[in-house]
Amino acid sequence: MLPSASDLLAWYDRHRRRLPWREALRDPYRIWLSEVMLQQTTVAAVTPRWRRFLDRFPTVEGLAAAPWEAVAEEWAGLGYYARARNLHACAQAVTARGGFPDTVEGLRALPGIGAYTAAAVAAIAFDRPVVPLDGNVERVTSRVKAVEEPLPAARPRLAALAQGWMSQSAAQARPADFVQALFDLGATICTPRNPACALCPWQAGCEGRKAGIAASLPRKAPRAARPTKFGVHFLLRDDEGRLLLRRRPPTGLLGGMLGLPGTPWREESWAEEEALAFAPVAALDWRPLPGEAKHGFTHFELRMSLLTATAPPALRTEGEWWPPPAAAQALPGAMRRLLTLAEGAGAMASPVPRAPRPGPRKRTQTGRPA
DNA sequence: AAAGCGGGGGC
DNA sequence: GCCCCAGCTTT
């Protein structure tokens, strides 16, 4: 007996989340943008960034015509920067062919659109009866059917289960709502910890609940330990207080984004003399800042230290000079932390913008660092 | 099949 | 501190 699509849709009509991209009815550009931003990223993090992105790039044609530097700046801080590179390439492909394809196969062929996003856009923007398998749907399906096989091996089985539920006539009548109902069930009731089974429209037929193992599903393969890596970065300020930034290589970690010049990141720490070989200009009075900036990546923990110097007038070196507030906006989070470290040490001519604090605040003194 | 790829929030 | 998040691409 299938879990009732009709029961789930009735629950959805009463309890669905009000999300801004759900007001963009059948606009594939806005729905696609939301889906890409939501890849491994929470609704709370995406919401303000989705609005801001659309203010700057209201149409897919406008996004396609924009320079990469503008797209990178708009994506800075959101993470997984290959998404931004693929987003830009996808916008150009869509513009060239005169609009979004309306089938799973057509969408799947575009840059940055995998099995999940192709199904999500097809279902939500074009009402195709396909179920995208995301973390929510994995959780709901594995619990309802008490699937104990661990991920990722169980993924094909879970996808087939969810797609089978779509075969009911109530789901076929409202494919976009049915998949979003599955998302909302997973996000608000069938949560990773402490699922609210008593409120669930599917509690009666849930085999995981019956067996008392729902909260422990889906099972997952154990994850590898994260090593620590070290890097030394260079904060070079010119006579106007601007900072030297460089564009990172187009692929790899933080690919295509701006950053402070620095050493490679490796598991062995760096001696200062050794690091100086990577300085933008070696023959300057580089001074170490006390402390370090830490940043957690998915697969390693990074500890960065900072050397600072003042650039002589008319210095010529590769890179761009950015005023600190604009730099903080354009940098990925890991690099932003270095600016925060420098500000804390009083090494910046102007403060790095931060969340507003109550009450008046003493300005960092302008001029020579203490 | 496994690894590389960010950042933030909840507990 | 650990886990998870509307995953995709490359090897």
Fold and architecture overview:
Residues 359-370 have a biased composition (Basic residues). The protein has 370 residues and is of the alpha+beta class. 41% of the residues lie in helices and 10% in strands. The protein contains 16 helices and 7 strands. The protein has helices at residues 5-15, 28-37, 43-56, 60-65, 68-75, 82-97, 104-108, 115-126, 135-144, 155-165, 169-173, 175-188, 207-211, 272-275, 324-330, 333-344, and strands at 228-237, 243-247, 258-259, 287-288, 293-296, 301-310, 320-322. β5 and β6 form a beta hairpin. The longest helix is centred in the first third of the chain and has 16 residues, at 82-97. It is elongated, with a radius of gyration of 25 Å. The protein binds a DNA duplex (11 and 11 nucleotides) through residues 34-46, 77-83, 86, 111-117, 120, 124, 132, 134-137, 152-153, 179-180, 183, 186-187, 192-194, 223-224, 252-255, 295-299, 332-334.
Taking all Cα atoms into account, the compactness measure Rg is: 25 Å
How many β-strands, per DSSP?
Answer: 7
Q: How confident is the prediction overall: mean pLDDT? A: 92
CATH architecture of the largest domain: Orthogonal Bundle
CATH H-level superfamily title of the largest domain: Hypothetical protein, domain 2
Number of helices: 16
The domain count comes to 2
Function: Adenine glycosylase active on G-A mispairs. MutY also corrects error-prone DNA synthesis past GO lesions which are due to the oxidatively damaged form of guanine: 7,8-dihydro-8-oxoguanine (8-oxo-dGTP).
Biased composition (Basic residues): 359-370
Family: Belongs to the Nth/MutY family.
InterPro entries: DNA_glycosylase, Endonuclease-III-like_CS2, Endonuclease3_FeS-loop_motif, Endouclease-III_FeS-bd_BS, HhH-GPD_domain, HhH_base_excis_C, HhH_motif, MIG/MutY
